[in-house]
Each structure stands twice: as structure tokens, then as C-alpha cells.
Design goal:
The chain is mostly helical. It has 9 helices and no strands.
Amino acid sequence: MLRDFAEFLLELASTPWGPAVMVLHAFLESFILPLAHELFLIPVSLARPKLSLLFALMSTTASTLGISVGYYIGKRGGRKLLLWMVQPKLLALAKRQIHKYDTWAVAVACFTPIPVKVFALVAGATRLNFKKLVVVAFLSRGARFFLVSLLLFFYGQAVREWILDYMDWIMIGLLVFMVISALLWKHLTQLVLKKEQLA
């Protein structure tokens, strides 16, 4: 099943629809979808390695627009909508981090596996400076996506062959990574909440 999904992504990436789907995912992933954008950026870049830097720019732009939409939803949606979209404890934690670190909290979320959608929503709800948010989001997301695309720009063909040779193991590794990341994020959230309760 995982291999079928990976092969489907690689086939889709080779079609004219590949970049369009990639851009759409980058946009939606920033405020609603759960899958990390690299699952779409990498196959599309592997299909056309020499355009990988352009794809990184497209992904960064679309992702920043998505974060802007998340900001607007958070600003206009009210507490009930936020609680419907985000767990109360996670929402409270994100609010505290933004109050404490301002846009730096969003920058960290944009660059790491931390769910940026939560911080985009909370940034809107807390009326974080929008222009500053957009600049930070663009630079941070760009750093993440261009780091991946630079590797594929120089070693795209070799990476593609390696992926095809070890597809099963790579998909298992990605699944394990996503599970571990989710568990670590949950554990980190609980630790921070506990520390704040004791403070």
C-alpha cells in the first residue's frame, strides 16, 4: 500500500498536473492538511531536477499564502472555530509561545515538523503583526523547501534511482519517522505544559 502510494506520487509528478497538485498541497497544508509538503515537493522535483529550485519557490509562495489564509481564519473565526480545529491544550500552548516569542515561534514552526497550521491560526487570533508574519513565514518556509530542492537539483537522478531501488524500506522509514515525530511532538507538548503548570 505504501509502495503503491509512492509510485502513484512519482507517476503523478511526471505529468503536467504534478506541479499544480504540489502547489495546491503547499497552500492547503499550511492551514488544514496534515501531510508534510515534502511528500509532494520531492517527487515533483525528482521528475524535473533542473526545475527543483523553481518548484521550491512555487511551494514557498503557495505555503505563505496558505499561512495567510490560516491567519485570516484565526482572526475572523473566533474561539469556537479554533477549538473545533485545534485541541484546547495545543491551542493554549501555541498562544503562550506566540505571546512569549512573537513571530520567532512561527518561524520555528515553519522550518520544523511542528504543525505550522496551529501557529498560523493562533497568530491571527492574537492579532500578530501580519506583514511581519508573512516575511518570517516566507523566509522560514523557503529555507526548508530550498534546502531539499538544492539537494535534488544537484543529485536528483541519483536520488531517484536510489528511491526506486529501496522504495519499500524508504516508505517504512517515512512511516516510522511520521509516527515518531507525532509522539515526540505530543511528548514535548506535555512537557512544556507541565513545566508551565509548575512555574
